[in-house]
User: What shape does this take?
Amino acid sequence: MSKPVIDVERFWKTIERSAEIGGGRPGGLSRLALSDSDRQVRDEFIEWCRAAGLNTRIDGVGNIFARRAGSDNSLPPVVLGSHLDTQVNGGRFDGIAGVLGALEVCRALDTANHRTRRPLEIVNWTNEEGGRFSPPMVGSGCFVGTYGLQWTRDRRDDDGKSIGEELARIGYLGDQPASPHAFDCYFEFHIEQGPVLDRDGTQVGVVTGGYSSTGTLVEFRGETAHTGPWPMERRRNALVAAARLLVAVDDIGWDFAGSGGKGTAARLVAWPNKPGILSDWAQTVCDVRHPDPASAAVMAERVRRAIGEAAARANCTAEVLDTWTWGGRIFADELVDLVRAASLRRGYRTQDILSQAGHDAYMVAHHSPTAMIFAPCRNGITHNNLELCTREDLAPGLDVLLDVALTRADR
Amino acid sequence: MSKPVIDVERFWKTIERSAEIGGGRPGGLSRLALSDSDRQVRDEFIEWCRAAGLNTRIDGVGNIFARRAGSDNSLPPVVLGSHLDTQVNGGRFDGIAGVLGALEVCRALDTANHRTRRPLEIVNWTNEEGGRFSPPMVGSGCFVGTYGLQWTRDRRDDDGKSIGEELARIGYLGDQPASPHAFDCYFEFHIEQGPVLDRDGTQVGVVTGGYSSTGTLVEFRGETAHTGPWPMERRRNALVAAARLLVAVDDIGWDFAGSGGKGTAARLVAWPNKPGILSDWAQTVCDVRHPDPASAAVMAERVRRAIGEAAARANCTAEVLDTWTWGGRIFADELVDLVRAASLRRGYRTQDILSQAGHDAYMVAHHSPTAMIFAPCRNGITHNNLELCTREDLAPGLDVLLDVALTRADR
Assistant: This one.
């Protein structure tokens, strides 16, 4: 039995094979959840898992768990994972590096003939991105009980197809209940998706928590009318209300930009949304986030006020259909310390960092002790086909992933 | 030979039959151009024309001409018409009253055994509304040469179907060239689609021209990125640029509302337009209009400036893909005077009025002497299923339509 080591070339070949499935704009991927290309990468991933001697099972929302037996299988597994789906203009690393990095950990253990005490599990969560079905992180959210099984399956894309229908179509409506089994702990390896680590020359980001974020889905209702003769003072154009809210959210983002805050106008749909007729319906998705929870709360309050003001200016009604919050100090101190210690022991340049994006780990943290490991990505570019990492960017984080997984699984 | 008279009950029955085809929200119609219901009403309209002894033909963009022979068929016809298509939430009178009113004029002449000297023609223009294919008034615009035949046929709806394909599908891709034959003149009877006549108790609106209007189709380009970590100062969210423009256009409308101006945010589409990713593409359609051409020019100039400002604020690029202007004193004085005189002779309460909406008559005015006759509609509500007229609202305008058609056709 030798010491397990990450084989970066083996990992990289797997990343490159994944990048052949669901190609998008040059260099990028467009592998939307439960699409044909998502099926294809899932099939290939399961093949890889089988070849590595893992036992795979699929739950009722398509989450894939691949288990490597330990010497005491009565103990809860150490779980490593992320997601294989991408945005419509996504990169080849976001999420993917976490799933295939977990696979590389298992392969490294096999090569070294290392049998851990506790079982290990790799997980690929369904629809992390929310690039096709809203909300994002719905697979992990359903697993931990934040979202109900039927509610999750009933989420629909813009063409009216549901998660349940699409899971059945691609053969991933599993028979395992989508209810949580016990985890010893959960580690998610992920690219930073921000410019901090790359700018600072840091090799491993120790994720201590997340930006406090509040997202909002708002519906505005007005009245259709002619775009010509109808007097301004009688207009109830829901598109105007929606546009005013998104501008306000952008303004709020700018007001807090100096201290790291962001305000995002993410989505606007309206009906009829045609020349010649005022729209009587519009929906927007927006969010605000800030590293400081108190500032984040002020931003969220300003968004709430802006919703009412935007509706009033356009003489429409507004209804908040959904809000979601995440972030804060949600990770397990013990695991965060473990990640930091492993990175320092390896001699990697290391810094503590907050995640600015949402991750499945945020959901899993409700269920079991959780931590994340960040790798730098060039200029922080992501959700874009130009997203870029090299082997050298990812290798240190993979080493740390292996180390912390072993420490936990062998104890 | 008796004196021809409008039979309002006969007209009303035809309106009611039309209102059974393409039902939308309660009381309204959703009869989009070249849809199955547009085919059905066209089929029925042609049946009615045949029963009235008219000779129908269809041109290369689906405009339907139905000709009633005169005693001297070498003379150009007096043409009456409008459109049978509606907005997705449309009423049962907008456009339809003009086509079926022209039919009633022909029926009244038949009943009275009146053969005019010049031929009469009824026309139903294709896709006046632009509620499915942009731009609006494309059938009349192609007829008069503003738009090319192939360009017109290549216009596509949001599902990618073209006017040419849809004309062929519903059997209305005619073999007549879509090139103008000579008109003696053109009269369009239409509901006002504004609140003026109804408010003032006016029975017949003498349309002296149109509000000066400028519409703009703008495309913004930015860059996709993550909605979380990406710093505000690096964001190039095309959705923000588009929203900022629409808010500016609404503001411009309000600034000129006191003198009758309007600014309309009509349409916004973006891509990917999803939670989690910034949009790198957006298109907007907006317009401004004012009764005073000089004020309208100021409004249009402010829109042009707002396009650049909106793009700059969001660090995007903007390109004006199309602009369109209409309105002004485009109608023939001689015909406008004729309409006014006919109305006064009948003893109807009459007023001169500018049209605030676009109409096929604006296009036809480039081709031949043109005038419009407005009827009041309740509260000016239109492009809405609550659009409402009674027999009494429409009968005076129909009488005037008959009178002016006879005066012109018999001279």
Q: What stands out?
A: The first strand of chain A starts at residue 55 and ends at 58. Chain A has two domains: 8-194+357-409, 211-326.
